[in-house]
Design a protein that fits this description.
- With 218 residues, the protein is an alpha/beta fold.
- The chain has 10 helices and 6 strands.
- It folds into 2 domains: 7-18 and 88-216, 3-Layer(aba) Sandwich (Rossmann fold); 20-85.
- Strands 3-2-1-4-5-6 form a 6-stranded parallel beta sheet, with helices on both faces.
- It starts with 6 loop residues before the first strand and ends with a helix.
- 42% of the residues are buried.
């Protein structure tokens, strides 16, 4: 494992948890019920963003009358109904990577745009919460991704300088956030495509967390 990596900070949705497809379906259904069309491209703009930043994007698209509170309430209800059958599935390689890092005594954190209580609930339901020393949610920072604030705070919680932390992200906003905070940054894309900007920004791009594990074992 690279000697510069002394801690690892993970995004959550679409990276550890295979949740983005579920939320895409629930948000699109909620928007349709309210008389709006949330396109696939617009949904991609919301990935990795805090609720506040997402609201701004939706208002810019649909106008000041867009009922974002009703939209979120309805979307949460729909997604909750979808989750009644059990916890959100893990992304391939997630558990194996966490176990490997645990065996190496590498401190871990989550830096998610989801609100902290909800992030902890999802991680607990997936039996992942015990792996993490810290969970930093979007409500714990003044500025969401792509601002570097959430990654700076996560590194502080782990008491490791950012330059010695590895961030693993699936979203463009997350990759920009981690690099702006001076973290080593890997991208494992989920719904968002790999662009030239991401190739230039990320320190490594991998098809899955299994590939990240293979890289860290070198």
């Amino acid at each position: 494992m690279h000697s510069d990596i002394r801690a690892v900070i993970f995004d959550m949705d679409g990276l550890l948890l295979d949740s983005e497809i579920l939320f895409k379906k629930s948000w699109q259904e909620a928007s349709k019920t309210l008389g709006y069309t949330l396109t696939d491209d617009l949904f991609l703009e919301l990935i990795g963003r805090t609720a506040e930043d997402s609201n701004k994007i939706l208002v810019d698209k649909f106008g000041a009358d867009f009922p974002h509170d009703k939209f979120r309430e309805l979307g949460a209800k729909i997604s909750s109904e979808m989750l009644n059958s059990g916890p959100i599935p893990l992304k391939p390689g997630a558990l194996e990577l966490l176990e490997f890092l645990k065996g190496k005594n590498i401190p871990l954190a989550v830096a998610s745009s989801t609100q902290t209580d909800e992030a902890r609930r999802r991680l607990a339901a997936a039996k992942l919460l015990p792996y993490f020393k810290a969970v930093i949610g979007g409500d714990m920072v003044a500025y969401g991704k792509p601002s570097p604030e959430i990654y700076v705070r996560a590194a502080c919680e782990l008491i490791i300088p950012p330059a010695y932390c590895l961030a693993i992200e699936d979203s463009h906003a997350g990759v920009k956030s981690a690099r702006a905070a001076d973290l080593i940054t890997y991208m494992v894309p989920d719904l968002m495509p790999v662009t030239l900007e991401m190739e230039d920004t990320a320190d490594g791009i991998f098809d899955s967390l299994n590939d990240v594990l293979a890289e860290l074992k070198k």
